[in-house]
Amino acid sequence: MDTAQRKERDLEKEIQGVSKCSDNIKTAEYGHIDLYCSLCSISIADYHRGCTTCPYVLCLQCCEDLRAGNIRLGAYRMPVKYVDYGLEYRHGGVKKIGKVSVGGIKVLRRHTLIDKDPAKHVEPSKRWVCDENGAIPCPPEDRGGCGESTLELRGLFCGDAISKLIEEAREYNELPSSIEGNSCPKGSEGPNEESSNQYSVYSPNFKQTEDMTREDLMDFQQHWSKGEPIVVQKVIDTDPGLSWEPQAMWASLCYVNRHHKELRMTTTNCLDFSKEDVLPQNFFKGYVKGDFDSKGWPKLLMLEKWPSSKLFEEELPLHLFELLRRLPFKDYMRDGYLNMANKIRDGSPDFDMGPSGAVVYGFDHELGRGDSVTKVHYERCDMINVLVHEQAVSPTQSQRATIQNLKEKHDSQDAKELQKAPNEGGEIEGAVVWHIFRKTDVPKLATYLKENFKKFRHLYCNRVPEVIHPILDESLYLDAYHMRKLEEDHGIRAWVIVQNVGDAVIVPAGCPFQLRNLKSCTKMRLDFVSPESVESCLNLCQEYRVLPRVHARKKDSLQVGKMIVYAVRDAVSDIKGSRV
Asked: I need a surface site. Which of 32, 155, 383, 567 has the fewest CB within 10 A?
């Protein structure tokens, strides 16, 4: 950051024809509004260029790209479209025309792939170039600017504050590492299907998270610094005084605020990943007893971000208190001093690190189509996922026979349309099965997904027509067939973790993962940013930056650059205070 800012200051001196410009850099005043680049949507931590006439702002990286003539060609593109051919097609039948009332075939754009703003789908017609001296004019209106003024250099901090902060930090940069020389004697193999050391998972089991010692923290850091996932068993115990059953939490919400009884819940149907509004009573009934569509196929629904972080704070304070009390490695979580997200939480409206919940249906066998899954992707930062409740659902023999008949139709359809062999997945004991990939395997994983995306189905059971980013699209799930092919073709495997009620799975930023729910499950999730993952978070921000503007994961809401500035500033201040 400092190198880019020094370079921009030197260029500004040439533009202004002065020997020093740091005193002339305007300190931007945006109140509590988080600042994002108008072109690439990355969050801005300090220096940027802004228009004096309109709200257009440009990050330094886009300034450099513009001067080099490297503005991304993929910034504008049409979204991926999926067609609803009806329930018969989803279960192996023929394609049918959609409802006449919607004008023939009903077309829906997948919310995870596109932005609905039509202006973002059109390539601007007017050329936008910088001046010979490097000054950048505000872009024309069809590029989001006003085309009238020159973008001026601004900073969120005064002058060369970042350079001065770095000089101060270097004075205190000789402190010993807390994990250096630790051999981690307490490391143990986690609940994997593989027992080799390469794919074992550090999995401590504490009677109480309050019992953890400094040595336990160092053991965690030894594995965490290598980018490995961690499993902590029995974080949440069954407490008769506080129920994590979702219907009980909903009843608590209704007791506090009766309007919850009247609200429909927007769920995702895992068969075709379409949205479906359901009454809470019906949703919770299906959670306990199971639900089936008109063909007899399991209807697996997912209710995401329920309860939301706001509901936890305002209407479920006891659940929030208990969850935070039980979290392991508290120095990294929520208000911990090693959670860098704490530095900018206050006054940042786009910044929500949780906790939030998810309530999902599950099925014990891998169906191959319509499984209760989170598709392969990686998150913007570190994450802890705690399974607080599970509910087994047992179909009758007659229902299982119907499922098998439909599965044979699905397999036949896949052989014709996807050139894919039948799925070979079996039954696994547990509540949730995770596949977590190493950061070093990301290039090979992305290559496999790019080569084979046409062998996957997504929205409305359509064959995936294209991928924009094979991992960030979150449109592909590797079933048993694809996991086997991935190892055969590219020699990579995943950590396999089976999560049971009470277990916490901690996933580092930059590790792609997917999961499948084997039972009805209620989970609580909390995001955090550890010092060990800062580099991965920065790399992910760059991947978000080059996504097309139509991509729904385009916006960099993490603001990791700002986190780093505030974290270093606070650390320097703390060290100074301790030496007075």
From this structure: 32
Bridge partners for 205 per DSSP:
233
> Are 121 and 23 spatial neighbours (Cβ–Cβ below 8 Å)?
no
CA distance 477 to 496: 15
Question: Residues 427-467: pLDDT tens digits?
Answer: 788 999 999 999 999 999 999 999 999 999 999 999 999 99
Residue 198: pLDDT band with limits 50, 70, 90? low
Amino acid at 155: G
CA–CA distance, 377 with 547 (Å, rounded to integer): 15
Q: How many angstroms separate the CA atoms of 430 and 292, rounded?
A: 22
Task: Return the residue matching tokens 């506090």.
Answer: 256
Q: What is the pLDDT of residues 296-328, one digit of tens each?
A: 999 999 999 999 999 999 999 999 999 999 999
Q: What is the DSSP track for 236-288? A: S--BTTB---HHHHHHHHHHH-GGGGGPPEEEEETTTTEEEEE-HHHHHHHHH
**Selection from 237, 528, 269 nearest residue 387 by Cα:** 237
Q: 68-77, 116-125, 165-174: which has the minimum mean pLDDT?
A: 116-125
Q: Which of 359, 366, 233 is nearest to 304 (CA)?
A: 359
Percent of the chain as helix, strand, coil, to the nearest 5: 35, 15, 45
The token pair at 433 is: 């099965």
Q: Is residue 193's pLDDT more than 60?
A: no
Partners of 577 in the β-ladder: none
Buried b (16+ CB within 10 A) or exposed e, 541-564: bebbbebbbbbbbbbbbbbbbbbb
DSSP string covering 359-392 = EE---SB--SSS--EEEEE--SSEEEEEEEEEE-
Give the highest mean pLDDT range of 153-162, 533-542, 553-562: 533-542
Pairing of strands 504-507, 230-232: antiparallel
The CA distance from 554 to 470, in Å, is 14
Position 12, amino acid? E
Write out pLDDT tens, residues 63-110: 999 999 887 644 556 667 788 899 999 999 998 865 332 323 344 433
Edge to edge, what strands does the sheet with 520-528 contain? 230-232, 504-507, 382-391, 520-528, 356-360, 301-304, 265-269, 274-278
C-alpha separations of 298 from 74, 208, 395, 404 in Å: 39, 38, 9, 11
